[in-house]
Amino acid sequence: SFPADKRSRPTARTSAGARAKASAPFDPFQAELTTMPVAQPVKATKTLEQYQITMRPGTADILAGQPTPILGYDGRFPGPTIHATRGREVQVTQSNQAGRNLVVHLHGGVTEHASDGHPMDIVGAGTQRVYRYANVQRGATLWYHDHSHGEVAQTLYAGLAGFYIVNDPYEDALELPRGEYDVPLMIQDRSFNADGSFRYQLDLDMGFHGDTILVNGAIAPRMKVERRLYRLRLLNASNARVYGLVLGDRRETLQIAADGGLLPRPVKRTLIPLNPAERIDVVVDFRQFGAGTEVILHNPSGEATTQAVMRFDVVKGGAEEAQVPKLLSELETLPPVNAARKFVLSFQSAGTAMWQINGQGYDMNRIDCRPRLGTTELWTFVNNSPHPHPMHLHLAHFLIRSVDGRPPGPADASWKDVVAVQPGSTVVVRPYFDYYTGVFPFHCHTAEHGDNNMMGQMEVEE
Ligand code: C2O
Ligand code: CU
């Protein structure tokens, strides 16, 4: 039972799109998987790489002969992939030609306040600003996306998302698959109007759920893979959909990394849960399949049209040099816990309906907690609502301490920046405030929840 959340209000459904004629769902595996263009620095030295990106409208070729209008980084959907290197600064000049105010957040980035992409810290329409990323953190699959206050559901849906991959000399020394065998896969759901445009329908409770799955901007595509090892960097860049990914007839994959980079050891997975904003890197050994095999990555728990995610078409491969070491990384020893805090997640239906943390909606002038730099804390999330909340902290990565009193499984026992808190459940995490001081938000990453006030602020102090 959810005492704090009894309500009978019907689900909010607004938007002109909801009334427009929708097109039928599409056949999967028609399109070839594409990879996003790799952003090229305009200037690079040993210590600094500078990029120039323009946020602007564009079109995407998703449906045959019917361009889909999008809003994208460099006008692309998805945006270009930025490859950064640990210890080498990246500066991205983001120029806003989108005709509206925007904010760029590097999700999972250990970023100083001025470049974090705080929801109120806008790049005004027609202006530009330089975001600085020191890349002090270890290797990890990050992503950048819009963070406009109250409008992420629209801007993310319109296309403002791209990968940002931190390469790490330590990781390079391992013999993991690399180059063309290291594949970023951005998974999103969309619906379409009959004219080919994205169809959006506000659902304040569940968040948006589309009827079609896209990977790297193509409808359930197919990809030729050689009989060898591949690293797949899975990112759920959907507004709200939760995936439970299965390869073929429940084949084993090896998870090697989570949000914050390499796990201590690889973990066998036959079901890969992927909550909004989460990243999971798996290595798949396609040598277990004969040439000519078609292996489907699917989402069995989805509705009928959202079960096919993509297909791997296995072809012959050359000699394999990559391997997955038994030991991937080591967790550092952490400073002791300095404070314990509790955050109750609930829905407020009286008056203006909104999602709340500790009975309050987001207020940019309120600081909810003041962690001290160089310490760890215990944060307890209690979900008193009937929907899951993928809770995300800017700046600080955390370890999951417990889920309903039990320690996490091995795949969740390393650095994370998103944790799903299920209805009625209690999750304790241990963030480490190890790099920067300043004001940073924490929020639910279901875009429609974060937009509707499910956000707080911490100020990390000296
Ligand atoms: Cu990916 Cu504040 O979010
Ligand atoms: Cu939520």
From TrEMBL:
Stored Pfam families: Cu-oxidase_2, Cu-oxidase_3
InterPro entries per the UniProt record, alphabetical: Cu-oxidase-like_N, Cu-oxidase_C, Cu-oxidase_fam, Cupredoxin
Domain Plastocyanin-like as annotated: residue spans: 57-169, 352-461
Origin superkingdom: Bacteria
GO molecular function: copper ion binding; oxidoreductase activity
Record-linked Gene3D superfamilies: Cupredoxins - blue copper proteins (2.60.40.420)
PANTHER family: BILIRUBIN OXIDASE, CUPREDOXIN SUPERFAMILY PROTEIN
Sequence similarity: Belongs to the multicopper oxidase family.
Protein name (record): Multicopper oxidase family protein
